[in-house]
């Protein structure tokens, strides 16, 4: 085969029944596809073996992480063009799986596939990249399995996260504004988010705050410095806890902040006046969410507030058939699950909470993710040294694709304010509570 790119383009278009929206450059330096379009670079024929032996998202992910596959040009434009072909989403132009299978059953397509297999080289699948989590066995969301999943995502080096997140060390959606509002940079926007949460929780001097999934300690540090509370931060990541404790000690706040390596199910020193849970509930899982909501309710004193900041997916017709994307599950958030906003609100209410406010801020997360991608790209060589080139590639793809998902309204993120309202009915909130959203 003289020109691999041309043959690959022909085969892809026969199977998809539509023109390929990106250009292809193959390992033999041949190119095919629309001029000026982002280019999918197949650096090694090994990429074909990965995709042939594991068709779909996981095969592509393995090729990307291993460096066998790359994109030249605008990464976001390329992912946007490919999204409908790779990921089937409600309302997307993706071909139906049945139509693709019918195409693959045609004799000429089978012949082309055999030709492609020959082109791919060795008739055995390459080993998955080292960054991939192997398929897990046993029940989901046990204490041990959750700790292992958190370790995979967060224990990859505090230095790496410092490059990506910047000085704030906040790994959740920032809250953007304008330069006139003093919110011009990522650091400003993360500080604005932390302060928004503190105001929603009604923090006052002397209160006791629990931060569930405290990360590198930014929330508890802000709450103690600015609002005079006492705080407990819990995380399952040993590296996060070490980093957070160092920050607390350097700030001279060790007498007011305690950082624990602890699961929310193991906290028994209630009551707390307020609880923040920011970007943590995505790890809980649908089977455990009722327990999560009930546990937080029991840890609050009557009148106490919960701020639950959580990514949400869109509802689907068959909720039981929902599954996490393979790339996310194997490389990013093992065992993570997203739930529709309605289910989250319902389960908080079933646990006894009175839900008082929901603020949707998905556009803020898209902007945050794009800034993290800029940070990663600007420090690419250092980031790859601090973890691995494959891990850096995982984060670049994950964050860029996630930014597009928020922009296209495929997923959202919401701050839900809930109260353990006393039997007498006084929630403790002002009549016009949205004064915090300025």
Automatic annotation (TrEMBL):
Domain of life per record: Bacteria
InterPro entries according to UniProt: CFA/CMAS, CMAS, MeTfrase_dom, SAM-dependent_MTases_sf
Gene Ontology biological process: lipid biosynthetic process; methylation
Polyketide synthase-like methyltransferase domain segment(s): 160-422
The keyword ATP-binding is assigned to this record: no
Keywords: Lipid metabolism, Methyltransferase, S-adenosyl-L-methionine, Transferase
Stated family: Belongs to the CFA/CMAS family.
Designated name of the protein: Class I SAM-dependent methyltransferase
Species the sequence originates in: Streptomyces sioyaensis
